Amino acid sequence: MAAIDYPLQRPKAEPGEFSFSETLYKWVATVDHKRLGLMYVASALIFLIVAGIMATVMRVQLMFPNGHVVGPDTFNRLFTMHGTSMVFLVGMPMVAGFANYLVPLMIGARDMAFPRLNSFGFWIFLLGGLLLYYSYLGGGGLSGDGSAPDVGWFAYAPLTERGFSRGHSSDYWALGVLVSGFGSIASAINVIATTFCMRCPGMTLKRMPMFVWVMLIDSWLIVVALPPLSAAQVMLLLDRYLGANFFNTQNGGSAVLWQHYFWIFGHPEVYILIFPAFAILSEVIPIFSRKPLFGRPAMVAAVVAIGFISLGVWAHHMFAVGMTSWSNTFFAASSMLVGIPTGIKIFNWTATMYGGRLRFTTALLFCCGFLFQFLLAGLTGIMLAVAPFDWQLHDSYFVVAHFHFTLVGGLVFGLFAGMYYWFPKAIGKMLDETLGKWHFWLFCIGFNLTFIPLHFAGMLGMPRRIYTYAPGRGWELWNFVATIGVFFQIAGILFFIYNVLRSTLRGQPATDDPWDGWTLEWATSSPPPEYNFEKLPVVRSSRPLWDLKHPQDPDWKWE
Amino acid sequence: MAHGHLVAEDALTMERQWKLPDRGTVGIVFLIVTESVLFSMFVIAYLIYLNKSLVGPYPKDVLELPILASICLLSSSGAIVFAEHALKHNRLGSFKLWWAVTILLGAYFLWATAVEWRKLIFEDHLTIATNLFGTTFYSLVGLHASHVIVGLIFLTIVFVLTLLGFPIQTQLRRVLFLSWYWHFVDAVWVIVFTVVYIIGLPR
C-alpha cells in the first residue's frame, strides 16, 4: 500500500547570488504568478500609504472648525485622489495580488492559465496608477488650469465636462482608471481560466478551497461590472476631446446617465473589493478554530448569490436623484435582499468559531475585528437601503462612516489577516506576533475612534466633502475624536511596516506549514519554488492536507 | 472509491481520467462576455438618446440601409467556417482561398462604413458633435468598426504567415479562437443593425 506521494517536505531552492541588475531584470521580466502577486500587493501597499497620508491631511484639516491646513481646491483634490487611489490602486491590485499568489497554489497548479497576460495586467495597472498621479504635474496642460482631479472618486458628469473641468485633470482621471481597468479585466479572465482549467487531478469544484470559489465569483463580477465604467469613461473622453454630447446637457445629453453607468459598475465594485476579505476569512477562521468551515455549500451558494444580486442594486446610490417610486422600491428591496447572503456568511464564520479550539493569533484577531465591524457596516447599509432614510442622510458623513466601515473595517482588516497568515508562505519568515498584536490593537482602536463618531457627525447633518465648517453645529467633538483616532491608526500601520521589514530581514524562519494548514499551498516549501510543486498533487477531499496528516481519519471517507 | 486505500494505482487512474476545459476556450469566452457588456452600454446609450436630438440631421433624413455591406460581413462568417473546415482536413489551398474571401468581405464592409461616414460628414454635415444622434451613432458604429479593424489585422497576420509557409495547421486552436471572435463581431453587427437601422429609423 503505497501512500500518495505528496510533496510535503521539499528541499528549499538554493538562492543563488545575483547582482542588482540581474535581480531587477528577474522581477521586471517575470511571468511567475507569485512574483506578480507580490508586486501587486507591494504596489497596493505603497498606494495605501500615499492615499492614507492624504486622508490624514484631510482629517487634520477637519479636526477643528475653520481649519486652515489646506485650502478648498487642495481639499477637493485630496478627497478625489484618496478615493480613487483607495478603490482602483489599493483595493483592485489587492484582489489581483492575493488571487494571483494563492489561486494556483491552492488548486495545485504550476502557474496561472495565461502567465504573460498576467504580467501585462500588472504593468498596465501600474501604468494607470502612475498616469493618475502624473496629473499633479501634467494636469495643468498648456493653459495651466487644473492639477490633480478634483471631481470626487465617482466623477459625476457633467461636472467632468470641458465646461466645468478645465485643464487635463479629468482626462488623467478617466485615462488612468480606464487603463488600470483593462489590467483588472485581464487578470480576472486569467483567474477564471485558471480555476476552470488548471486544477490538479481530483480537485473538483466541490472540493475547491473556499478562497478560490470566492475569487472565481469575484473575477466574474470584474468581467461583467468593469466594462460599464470603461464605456462611460470612453464616452466622457469622446465628450471632452471630440465634442460629443453624451453628458452635455446643453445639447440634450443626460446628467443622470453617467450616474447610472458609474453605479452599474460601482455597486458590484464594492463587492469586488470586499470579496478578498470574504475569501481570506473563509480560510483563516477554520484553521485557527481547528474546525472545517461551517456550512460550506451554503457559503458557496451565498457568494454566488451575491455575485448575481449585486448586479441589480446600483440605483440605491441614486435615491436622491429623483427616480420614480417604483425604481426606488425595486432598488431598496434588492439592496436589502443582498443582505441575506451576506448575513449567511457572517453566521457561518461565527458558527465555525463556535465550539472551536481557538488560537488567537494576529490573523484571527483581525478576523474577529472584521466580524464586528463588517456587521455594523452591514446594518448601516440596510438603513441606507431604506429610501426615505437615505434622503435624510444622503451625502452626509453617515455614508462616509458606513462605507469606511465596510472597506477599512471589513476589507483592510481582512487583508491584514491574510498578510499575517500567508506572509510565512510568501517570504519564508514568520511575522512577529507581539508586534502584530500591537498593530492590531492600535489599528482597531484607532479605526473605531475615527469612524464611529463620524456616524454621529453625519446624523447631525455634516455633509461629505466640505473642506471646513463653522463652530456651533455640534460637530466639533465628533471631528476632534475622529482625528485623534487617525493617529492611533498611523501608529498601528507603523508597527506593521516595522514588523514586515524586521521579519523579512531577520525574522524567525518559517516552516513549510506553520499553521498546520489543510490546503495545498502548505504542501510546498516556504517560499514555494518557481514551479510550485515538484509533482502535481492528487486530491480527494476539500482538505487534502488533513487527509495526508490523518490517514486513519481522512475527510474523503465522509464527503 | 469510498472504501479503498490511498494507493498509487488509484492516483494514476485519477490523473488519466482527469479532464478539464481548454484554457484558451474559457479565456476567449469570457473575453466575449466582457466585450458584450461593453457593447450593450453603447447600445443602451443609443436607445436612450433615440429621438432626443435637439437639432437635425435626424436618422430618417440621412441614413441609408447598408444592405450589401451587411450581407458581406455576415457571409464572411460563413467563409471563415469553410476556411476552418479546410484547415481541419489539412487542405491548405482551400483554407487560403476561404481565408482570403473572409478578409475581402470584412474589408469591403469596412470600406462601405468609410463611404457612409464620408457622405454623412461632408454631405449631411453630421459629426459626432452635431447632436445626440451623431454622438451615439458614431460611437456605437465606430466601436463596432474598430473591432472589425482588430479582427482584420489578426486575420491578415494569419494569412501572411500562411503565405510565407508557416505551418498554420499546427495552430488550429488559435485559428478557431480567432474565428469565434470574428463570429462575435458579426453577431454584434446584427444587433447594431437592428438598433440603428431598424428600430432607429421610423417607417
Explained architecture:
- The complex is a heterodimer of chains A (about 550) and B (about 200).
- Chain A is mainly alpha-helical and about 550 residues long.
- Chain A has helices at about 20-30, 35-60, 70-105, 115-140, 170-195, 210-240, 255-290, 295-310, 325-335, 340-355, 360-385, 385-395, 395-425, 435-460, 475-505, 545-550.
- The model of chain A has no long low-confidence stretch (mean pLDDT about 90).
- In chain B, about 75% of the residues lie in helices and about 0% in strands.
- Chain B has 7 helices and no strands.
- In chain B, helix 2 (about 25-50) packs antiparallel against helix 6 (about 130-165), helix 4 packs antiparallel against helix 5 and helix 5 (about 90-120) packs antiparallel against helix 6 (about 130-165).
- At the A-B interface, helix 5 and helix 6 of A face helix 1, helix 2 and helix 6 of B.
Mind sketching the topology for me?
The complex is a heterodimer of chains A (559) and B (203).
Chain A: H1 20-28, H2 33-62, H3 72-106, H4 115-138, H5 169-197, H6 210-242, H7 257-289, H8 296-309, H9 325-337, H10 339-353, H11 362-385, H12 387-393, H13 397-427, H14 433-459, H15 476-506, H16 544-549
Helix pairs in contact in A: 2-3, 2-4, 2-15, 3-4, 3-5, 3-6, 3-7, 4-5, 5-6, 6-7, 6-8, 7-10, 7-13, 8-10, 10-11, 11-13, 11-14, 13-14, 14-15
Chain B: H1 8-17, H2 23-48, H3 59-62, H4 67-88, H5 92-122, H6 132-163, H7 172-199
